[in-house]
Design brief:
Layout (H helix, E strand, L loop, with lengths): L2 H23 L3 H32 L2
Helix pairs in contact: 1-2
Keywords: Membrane, Transmembrane, Transmembrane helix
């Protein structure tokens, strides 16, 4: 995995963990929303990183 996909995956998983723990602890709704936003941004970054890796692999086979 390239660096973008790795960082985005970590960012998304950390956001998911934060949202789940905040919901279990009865935290403020803003903290739960922040966790879900981090999860969504991490997923988008991981998808973009995977697409970039696929494009690089596609170019190397030609």
């Amino acid at each position: 995995m390239n660096r973008l996909a790795t960082i985005s995956t970590f960012f998304g998983l950390f956001g998911l963990l934060m949202a789940m723990l905040a919901a279990l602890g009865g935290a403020v709704a803003a903290l739960i929303a922040l966790g879900f936003a981090m999860m969504a941004l991490g997923a988008m970054g991981a998808i973009l990183g995977a697409a970039a890796s696929l494009a690089r692999a596609w170019q190397s086979t030609r």
